[in-house]
Queue: 2 jobs
Job 1
Amino acid sequence: MNRDTSRDLYDRALDSLPGGVNSSVRAAPVPYPTFVRSGEDGHVVDADGNRYVDWVMGLGPLLLGHSLPDRVTSAIQSRTADGPMFGMPTELEVEHAEFVTRHVPSVEMVRFVNSGTEATVSAVRLARGYTGRDKVVVMESGYHGAQESTLVERVGPRPTERASGDEPRAVQGQPSSPGIPASFAEHTLPVPFNDPEAAHEVFEEHGDDIAAVLVEPILANKGIVEPEPGYHETLRDLADDHGSLLVWDEVITGFRVGGLQCAQGKYGFDPDLTTFGKIIGGGFPVGAIGGKTEIMNEFTPSGDVFQAGTFSGHPVTMAAGLETLRYAAEEDVYGHVNRLGEQLRSGLSDVVADQAPEYSVVGTDSLFKVVFTRDGERPRNGGDVGDASVERWNRVFRPQMQDHGIMLSQNQFESQFVADGHTEEDVEQTIEAYADAL
C-alpha cells in the first residue's frame, strides 16, 4: 500500500507544527501518521487514495459516520449562511440545552463550552467554588483533558498500603507533564479505578478538603475498562458522606453509551455534575457542563464562579449537535451501532480465543477494542492495560491492520467507535483482518 503522500506531508509538517501534528495522539502511528483526504459513511480515504474501514470516527464525535444525513447537512449549511457567529445568544443554544436536560436524567441546566478539556476545567472550578474546598479525587489512568488539575500521577505506595503505626499513607501525586507547578498536584488525589478500599482511605485522610470526585463511567482512554458492580455506588456514598460533589466525565460516553440517557442512564446513576463533548457537537468543536440547578447557578453571571468563552454555544456547532441528536432520537441509530458493536465483540472474541487466548476483547454498546493482555483476564484498571503488550499493538499490529484496509485508533489506549454509517460488511471485513493480522 503506497503512502508516499502522507510521508511527504508529515515531512513538511515537522517544519511548521510541533511534532508534525496539532494533537499529540495523532503522531503515534509509526513511522508517520496517515493524512486523511475525505470520509464517506464508515470509511476514510487517505492522501494517497487508499480506502479504509474507519473505526477511529474522529476519536468519538462521529456517531452518524462521515456522510451526514441530508437534514443534518441542511441544518449546518443554513446556520452557516446566516453568519459565522455573533458573540450574542441564539435560539439554537436554548433548544440544544433543552434537548440535553430533557433526556439526561441528572442534568437540569447546561453551560456550553468549546472542548471536553474546557468542560472539565470549568467543572473542577465550579466544584471548588461551590464547596469552598480545593482537593479533587481522580482515577489513575483516567483522562479529563489537557488541564493542570488532572494531569497528575501517583507516586509512592498504593493508598491502601500502610505506613508504620498502621496509619494510612497520604496519597502523593506529581504532575504528569512539565509545565505544571508541583503545587497543583498537591490538590489532586489519584486512586486506582475499581478499588473501593483506596477510595475509602483517601476520603478518610482528606474527606473534609475534597471538593469533588472526577470519574469516567468507563475508562475509555485506557483500553476501555468497565466499572465493577458497586464501585460507582461507593464513590456516590463517599461523596455524599463528606459533602463532596460527584462529577461524571461523559465526554466519550455521553450520547454513545446508554443512548440518549448516556452512561448514567445505562447504569442508573445520578451524578451532581456531568461533562460532555464529542457527539453533542456533531463533529464540530464542543464541550458542556451539565448538572443540578443549585450548583450550575454558581456560574457567572448568576453566581460568582467565573466562566466565559467567545465561541461557546457557537451557532454552527449547536446546529450540528442538536440535529445529530434529534436524528439519533428519531431513527434506529443506537440499535444499529450497538448491534454492530456486539457483532464485532462476538466475532473478535472467537478469533482471540482461537489465536491469542491471552488477549482480551473489551467494550460495550458501540465501543470495542482488543487489548493485548498477557493472561486473558479483562483489565480492571488502567494499570492492567498499561501492563499489556502496548508496543506490540502500536508498532506491529496496528500497521498490519492498516495494510489490510482497517483504520484503528492510534494506540492501544484509545477507544474504537462504531458509527451509523458502518455496515455488516465492514464488520465482517474487520474480523477477517484481525484473524489474518493476529
Job 2
Amino acid sequence: MKTLHIGIAGAGLAGRTLAWRLLRAGCRVNLFDARSRGDLATASMTAAAMLSPLAELAVSDDAVFALGQRSMQLWPQWIAELAAEGLPVYFRREGTLVVAHAPDQSSLAHFTGLLLHKLPEAARAQVHTLDAAALARAEPALAGRFGSGLMLDGEGQLANDQWMAALAVEIDRLGGTWLEGRAVDAVEDGHIACGGQSYGVDVAVDARGVGARESWPQLRGVRGEVLTVECKGVSLQRPVRLMHPRYQLYVAPRPNHQFVVGATELESEDTGPVTLRSTLELGSALHSLHPAFGEARVLRLAAALRPALDDHRPTVSQRDGVWHINGLYRHGYLCAPALVDGLVHQLVGQHNG
C-alpha cells in the first residue's frame, strides 16, 4: 500500500503535534511554517500550558470539557513516549488550587457554584473545599494567607517550551520534512504552496491559527499576555488560580523556581509588546499571592494572538478538500491531543480502509 503523504501548514502546537503523531503512524509528512522552529513569539510558546478541564468549564462548555477529559488520558501516554526517546518533558498532575483574598470571596463562591452547576455528576467528586488548615497542608507556601480554597483534583500542567522542542527533535528523527521560515501562500486540495513553490500531497491540513484567516473569515485573534519570573523564595506544588472581580490570575510553577503568570485576555489583535498596565496588573496580583514574589526576577514578558471562533470551541473540519484544525483559543494545550488523535485516526483509517 502506498504511504500516505500529508502536508501540514503551520508548526504551532496543533500542527507540530499532528506531524509527530502522523509520523509515528507511518505517514510521510511535510511541515510548512513561516517561522523558525525556535521562534518564541507564538501562541504555542506564550502560554502557561495548564491542563484544567474542570476550571475551564466555568468559562467554556461541555464540548471543550469532553475534549479536555480525553486529552487528560492522552497526555501521560504521549509524555511517556517522548521520555522513552530520551526527551523528558516537565509534566505534573497535582490538581489546581483556587483561592481568593477576603474581599473577593464572592468571586470564589460564584466560581464554585458555577462549576458545580456545569460539571457532570461523576466529576463533582474532584472538587473539594479546603479550610485554612487543609489549604496550608496542600500548599505550605500559602499557609496563613487564605482562609479557604478550592482543590480541583486531577488537573495538571506541562512545560510547553520543552514539549515544542521535543517534538521538533522527534519530527526530525522520524524523517519528517520541515520547511521553516517560508510563508505559506495557499493550502488547497492536493497541494500546499510555500515560498513560491507548489508541493503535491495526498492530504492537506491547515493548522496556521490566525494565519489561516483568508480561508476562514470567522477566525479572529484574541491577545494573551504572560509573565515568566524566577523566585527562589516560593515553592508551589501545583498551579494556583487567584479569583478577582476583574480577572483570574493563574500561576503555574515550572522547574528551577520559575513561574508562568497570566490573566489577561484582550479582544484585540494588537501584536505589540506587553503594556505597562498589564505588567502592573500581573505583577501586583502575583505579589498579593505571596510577598516573596516582590523579589522575583522577570525573565520574560510576552504577548501573542490566540485563534478563536465565535463559539470559542476548538474545531477540526474539512472544507473544499482541505482539513482544518483551528480555533484553539485559550484551550490549546487542554484540547490539542484529543483533536489531533481524532484527526490522525480519521486520516489513517480512511487511507487503510
